[in-house]
Amino acid sequence: MRVTISRKAHFNAAHRLYRKDWTFEQNDAVFGKCNNPNFHGHNYELIVSVTGEIDPETGYVIDAKILADIIKEEVEDAFDHKNLNLDVAEFENLNPTAENIVVVIWNKIRKRIESKFDLEVVLYETPRNFVTYKGE
């Protein structure tokens, strides 16, 4: 009997979409207003889901408090009120698109979740734009 437990979280962060090896014109053509040299921000919403067997002793797949602590430590503390391009090491040479952000978050959480569990991360950049990553 496999069950999925999910936890919602949020963080606010600024970023700029651009490639260092492209001209401003190339970046502007591809990334438009998201290429603003002064950055722009989002109120990101996050849903982390863990799927696995229910532990017969606890009745949990994973303790929701443990999942909440992992999300806080790996995502909220690391990304909230940060400039992703300047303040987050993972994006020093990685364009902080929603697609790249969700993979970085998944990798950070994956290392803290036992491999017997499946992990899915959904990241909302806006209420209408979101990405999902379940691993490779």
UniProtKB/TrEMBL annotation:
Database matches in Pfam families: PTPS (PF01242)
Record bears the keyword Hydrolase: no
SUPFAM superfamilies in the record: Tetrahydrobiopterin biosynthesis enzymes-like
EC class of the enzyme, as a word: lyase
Recorded catalytic activity of this chain's protein: 7,8-dihydroneopterin 3'-triphosphate + H2O = 6-carboxy-5,6,7,8-tetrahydropterin + triphosphate + acetaldehyde + 2 H(+)
Cofactor note: Binds 1 zinc ion per subunit.
Biological or metabolic pathway of the protein: Purine metabolism; 7-cyano-7-deazaguanine biosynthesis
EC number: 4.-.-.-
Annotated InterPro entries: 6-PTP_synth/QueD (IPR007115), 6-PTP_synth/QueD_sf (IPR038418)
Needed co-factor(s): Zn(2+)
Keywords: Lyase, Metal-binding, Queuosine biosynthesis, Zinc
Recorded family membership: Belongs to the PTPS family. QueD subfamily.
The protein's name: 6-carboxy-5,6,7,8-tetrahydropterin synthase
Lineage of origin: Bacteria, Pseudomonadati, Bacteroidota, Flavobacteriia, Flavobacteriales
